[in-house]
Specification:
Bound molecules: zinc ion
Order of helices and strands: EEEEEEEHEEHHEEEHHEHEHH
Largest sheet: 10 strands, antiparallel
Mean pLDDT: 90
Number of helices: 8
Shape: globular
Low-confidence stretches: none
């Protein structure tokens, strides 16, 4: 597999003829359970739950898309750009129990997972070759779930993913024009209008975005400005517990609509990496604002090709927020 850059949209795609496309045996024992005995390459553990040896754990992905060894050797091919898929690919085991998920684990366990995530992002950003670290979770068969155990994944890449690049460019342009963070402005307007806010908890807010890509799309943001999740996640333990609680409650609400979802954390890029043409680090601490995006997978009628090019979301955020706010959740 290799990475190729689309010269028009400037987005990187991973492509190649992968011979190792194997589906795990459905009855095979779970290798991520705390008592599985499977040999895993453990990178780090988060131990801060009393009485257990670990409560969240980072391991090397068993079939990684990115490999830490080697050089990306970015090279031209006429007008095209390509490089090897060098980077890191880890599985974050969110909980030692097979059935304790981010919506039914304790706030302490979720906080422990968030701390591990922050530590891994910070550690991977120490490699100056890494431009971006992504944290994501695909839950349920329609979302492309890979493992039955409660897990998220981390990829560290030599490029910034397309959606994040759009956000970075837009955030910087907004800041140049207004000297304000676009995300802080969104939070202020949403809290003032109270049309799309699901819940506010201490320093965090969950809301449905004004222009959703899918029905019930939900963002979780920090109400005070901070560009990098890993700084909040490590330095402010009280905030971590509140974020864990809001994440848990928000996922409970979404699960009253659908069980399948994608979750992604957007944080600032690796500022250790020198930027030649974009210069987005100059104001990055002021112009970018970390957040979590949750994209529920709701069955909907197939749409023509037009709707793959323009997002089509047949439930408005103003309607979605009412259902999510009123959802019966455990607490
Ligand atoms: Zn398991
Ligand atoms: Zn902000
Ligand atoms: Zn985002």
């Amino acid at each position: 597999m290799e990475l190729r850059k689309d010269p028009i949209t400037r987005s990187w795609v991973m492509t190649g003829d992968d011979p190792s496309e194997t589906v795990p045996h459905p009855t095979a024992a779970c290798r991520f359970c705390s008592d599985s005995g499977a040999s895993l390459h453990t990178i780090a553990e988060s131990p801060n739950t009393p009485g257990v040896s670990w409560s969240a754990r980072a391991v090397v992905h068993p079939t990684p898309l990115y490999h830490i060894e080697g050089e990306p050797t970015r090279r031209g091919d006429g007008l095209y750009d390509r490089m090897h898929s060098v980077g890191a690919h880890e599985v974050l085991i969110e909980n030692r129990s097979h059935d304790r998920h981010l919506w039914n684990a304790s706030d302490g366990e979720i906080g422990s997972f968030l701390r591990l995530a922050a530590e891994r992002i910070l550690d991977l950003k120490r490699d100056p070759r890494i431009k971006y670290v992504s944290l994501f979770k695909d839950h349920g068969p329609s979302a492309g779930e890979e493992f039955a155990h409660p897990t998220s994944q981390i990829t560290a890449t030599m490029f910034v993913p397309r959606r994040v690049l759009y956000e970075l460019r837009a955030g910087r342009e907004y800041f140049v024009a207004k000297e304000r963070c676009v995300f802080c402005d969104i939070i202020q307007q949403e809290e003032r209008q109270a049309l799309r806010v699901i819940e506010t908890r201490a320093d965090y807010v969950a809301l449905c975005p004004y222009a959703p890509r899918v029905p019930y799309e939900t963002w979780i943001l920090c109400r005070t400005h901070e560009a990098a999740f890993e700084r909040t996640g490590l330095n402010r333990p009280g905030l971590r517990v509140n974020l864990g609680a809001l994440l848990r409650r928000t996922l409970q609400r979404i699960r009253t609509i659908t069980e399948d979802f994608h979750l992604v954390l957007h944080t600032s890029p690796n500022t250790l990496h020198p930027s030649k043409n974009l210069g987005y680090w100059k104001t990055i601490d002021d112009d970018y604002h970390w957040h979590i995006e949750i994209l529920p997978v709701v069955p909907s009628r197939a749409r023509s090709y037009t709707f793959k090019e323009v997002y089509y979301s047949p439930v408005s955020s103003e309607t979605a927020v009412k259902q999510l706010r009123d959802a019966k959740i455990d607490g």
